[in-house]
Automatic annotation (TrEMBL):
Top-level taxonomic group: Bacteria
One GO MF term: DNA binding
UniProt cross-references to InterPro entries, sorted A to Z: Homeodomain-like_sf (IPR009057), HTH-type_Tx_Regulator (IPR050624), HTH_TetR (IPR001647)
Species in which this protein is naturally found: Siminovitchia fortis
Record-annotated HTH tetR-type domain positions: 1-61
PANTHER family xref list: ACREF/ENVCD OPERON REPRESSOR-RELATED, TRANSCRIPTIONAL REGULATOR, TETR FAMILY
Gene3D superfamilies: Homeodomain-like, Tetracycline Repressor, domain 2
Coiled coil: 205-232
Annotated protein name in UniProt: TetR/AcrR family transcriptional regulator
Record flagged with keyword Nucleotide-binding: no
Pfam families: TetR_N
DNA-binding region in chain numbering: 24-43
Keywords, in A-Z order: Coiled coil, DNA-binding, Repressor
Length: 274
């Protein structure tokens, strides 16, 4: 396991028990079995570590949902979207509770801007779903529907956070599919326009040079493995296309779950529109 990943996992265990403020760098390093020097080679401070954890969870959710939307048939798309989103939120609920409870003081402008970027990317995913499922019948109200879907997710997520009763995610997803369909087919007075929403269906993609730089950086952190070999082949294909789409998809699938490669997989799928 890479040292940075080890620190994140062990720190999260301590944060869950003690909270952010009560956990020191010294405690984190002792729990990891490393020196403070090794910690500061990976993170400049505890605040940076916390932001990295938040970034990690947000990115992981975005990548999984984006992949699902691109690889699910329309018949079950909306249900699978709700189910996967709530399932992911439930898995990370302990961290979310800590974050909300302690009212983090580390939310600087850089982090807020980063989170806003992820939020806009998530809105793009929802826009893709809306346009695929409802097409012209929702043309005038699609941006309202995006905000309604986001509202459903935000509101019902509170149940996962604060309710002690078990939550039936299957029933919840079915219920929200029904509500979304009613709104999509019966909304006659839309309010949110494209200008207000500021959602762009084709956001700026990472350049080939940016992706190559990221690939090289991650390859240096990885041990020899199938994922690293796949990354080498994808890099070569990015420099000089020679592989069939089927092989490229297979290589992307190989790296999709590796912690160093998830973001690269997302960027490459968007770059090649796969």
């Amino acid at each position: 396991m890479a040292k940075k990943q080890l620190i994140m996992e062990k720190a999260l265990e301590l944060f869950a028990k003690q909270g952010f403020e009560s956990t020191s760098v010294q405690q984190i390093t002792e729990h990891c079995g490393i020196s403070k020097g090794a910690f500061y080679l990976s993170f400049k401070s505890k605040d940076e570590l916390i932001l990295e954890l938040l970034d990690h969870f947000t990115m992981q959710d975005l990548l999984e949902i984006d992949y699902l939307v691109r690889n699910t048939e329309n018949e079950t798309l909306l249900y699978d979207f709700y189910q996967a989103t709530f399932d992911s939120f439930q898995k990370h609920s302990d961290f979310a509770k800590i974050f909300l409870k302690e009212q983090m003081h580390t939310l600087d402008e850089k982090f807020v801007n980063k989170m806003r970027t992820y939020e806009k990317s998530f809105e793009e995913v929802i826009l893709t779903i809306v346009e695929r499922l409802y097409r012209e019948e929702i043309k005038e109200a699609k941006y309202d529907l995006i905000y309604c879907i986001k509202g459903f997710l935000n509101t019902y997520s509170q149940i996962l956070l604060f309710s002690d009763a078990p939550v039936d995610l299957e029933l919840l997803s079915q219920s929200l599919v029904e509500k979304t369909n009613i709104l999509a087919r019966h909304t006659t007075i839309p309010f949110i326009t494209k200008e207000i929403a500021q959602v762009c269906p084709a956001s700026e993609k990472a350049t080939k040079e940016q992706i190559l730089e990221l690939i090289q950086e991650k390859m240096e952190e990885m041990e020899d493995s199938i994922e690293k070999e796949s990354l080498v082949l994808l890099k070569e294909h990015l420099l000089k296309p020679a592989l069939s789409p089927a092989i490229v998809k297979g290589l992307l699938e190989n790296i999709r779950h590796h912690p160093h490669c998830k973001w690269i997989s997302y960027l490459l799928r968007r770059y090649w529109e796969m």
